Amino acid sequence: MTERSYLDHAATTRMLPQAQQRWLEVSSLMGNPSSLHDSGRRARRIVEEARESIAADLRTRPSAVIFTSGGTEADNLAVKGLFWLGETQGRNGVIASSIEHHAVLDPVKWLGEHEGARVHWAAVDAAGRVDPSDIESALAAHEVALCTVMWANNEVGTVQPVAALAALCRSYGVPFHTDAVQVLGQLPMDLGELGAAAVTVSGHKVGGPFGVGALIVDPDLKLTPVLHGGGHEREIRSGTLDAAGVAAFAVAVREAVSHQGRFAAEMMDLRNDLISRVLLEVPAAQLNGEPNLDGPDRLPANAHFTFAGCEGDALLLLLDAAGIDCSTGSACTAGIPEPSHVLLAMGAEPQASRGSLRFSLGRETTKSDVDHLLDVLPAAVDRARRAGSVRSRS
Amino acid sequence: MKVLAAMSGGVDSSVAAARMVDAGHEVTGVHLALSKASSIPGSRGCCTLDDARDARRVADRLDIPFYVWDLSEKFAQEVMDNFLAEYQLGNTPNPCLRCNEKIKFLALLERALALGFDAVATGHYAQVVDGPHGKELHRAVDPEKDQSYVLGMLEGWQLDHSLFPLGADTKDQVRAEAEVRGLLTARKPDSHDICFIPDGDTAGFLRRRLGDNPGEISDVETGVVIAEHDGAFGYTIGQRRGLDLKVPAADGRPRYVVDIDIQERKVFVGPPGLLDVDQIIAVRPTWANQPVGAEPVACNAQVRAHGTPVRASARVEQSVLVVDLHETIRGLATGQGVVIYDGTRVIGSATIESTRRVVCE
Questions:
Q1: Domains and CATH numbers, chain A
Q2: What is the ipTM of this complex?
Q3: Quick one: closest CA in A to B64, which residue?
């Protein structure tokens, strides 16, 4: 078996040993955090310490941290919860960027189709960045229940001007939500300074366990729940708290935040090397997203290319066989690749957008992984291009 | 060899893939997503989400890479649109044959070869054997399951890169083997329907897609109009069931669809004797390796997936295949394929354009 190079850390990354250990410790304890007896109190204490730890790391208040089953649930809670809250105040507009992750995109579409939301899809430029003046005119034109723009895009890695957007929304009295799943551990995150109404984070992207995440939400906002039940998490998110999960999540967040600066610098070096070599060695490779690789506007571990004339899934198959794990960007339930809505929104042709791949680096990535990729990528692209031309002819 | 196993999620392609792994090939599994519309819970086509999942689980079991390839656009164009267009021309197309011709052994095979695979393996019941003029396609050992008819259009270059690991076995043997291997598809029922018409109601499908197209049903012998129909598309030459004729025939015998005039939206019925055919004219012939020329060759002709082959002689005149049948065939619809055999060996195939009736109307 070929030595594998995992270049899909934006999809998920390995759980940190410290987080694993913490998970094992807590999972051996007896007790439901909502129980009133001693065992319950001990479990509750672990949950609250995790909440405080995460709040401190993200520069927010513990009461703002609502634990969820992950990023998708946190996004759904933010989008639907803020919309339904706004509805009670006579506001039914929703502003969302057209390049959101499906966990935001689809709830917004659903609200438009089933709940009477008036949706304004904010366009992006060729680098994948929204235009604050476009969002401002939408804020001015409608009674808006929420505005949601992801902090950084999961496919092309473009960082949005979220601080400016949060301030803009505040000036209109509109809650601003941002999905920060890709940002945690990659960029500095100071939620107090950001001043957003709600921020989504997820555990498994930063070395925590799967199935745990959080919505950091202004405690003054009484979100309408998506999950009704026993009234956990300030009656915003019912469901028995996963003490082991959130404790391990907190450990991973602590690690991610405390090493963020050094990690980002290392990733950026490796990533810039990867990008310059791909552009040099693969004919007609095109970099997508923010072109300035040394600035703050692109996630440090993200590289995303279009290889014109290829089908992304053919390229993925060839790289997979050569020991490279990477991604075509977005996946759907049956595993059928669709042209990426992100690239389409950035103005790519549907056909070209199908020939795209994302390489995302992580804690374990080394120069030898980049060397491995460059050893096999040029031939794989060449072969996929020949297969692509066959496909269009037959 | 690097082998791409086409895995439908059924028992046959599962065992075929397993045998390729056992044979020591480097196997990659691919499930073709052919019809997005059929990914509806409860539908029983050959490409539902359940089938994709089953195929994936078999690939897990075999420990081979597995992917889903979306050929739904091409399938819609080449198979479904063609299916409707052929009915609109008054023909009765065979979509499975068309799918093999345009999707599995063209789009898929070409893509596989371009990506560096040496061959595509499927769960079809047929045999590829070495012959004096290259690879030959032969009938499967199990006459009940033989699928050489729907593969009859394969040409030499396709046979060179096609593997049918089940051709020497019976269905029962394959199912038993799937059980022994512990494959979760072992007890899955066979699919019989057209995959994009999972309820089997072809007439309803055509009506929904092509709209009502009402007209008259008349007796071809008397010229009398005896019923109305919703759309001539729903009828096939040789059809007896579902005609709902109110007026009995003069002789009291059952009547069959003997002719369809799509332009005039007329369906003609008559006695079965009118359906007897002794010559087939078929277009776009393909040859496994040795083309038939102007000189007639003795052969057996088969015109349906599970039809009985009849003795015939075949020749090509101006690139059209002419098949003279030594025994008549009853009720032959245009648009179907005719495959000619020499014993168990496929000589070639073509699409039936017209037939010569024994009794002129």
A1: 5-13+260-393 (3.90.1150.10), 17-258 (3.40.640.10)
A2: 0.85
A3: A321
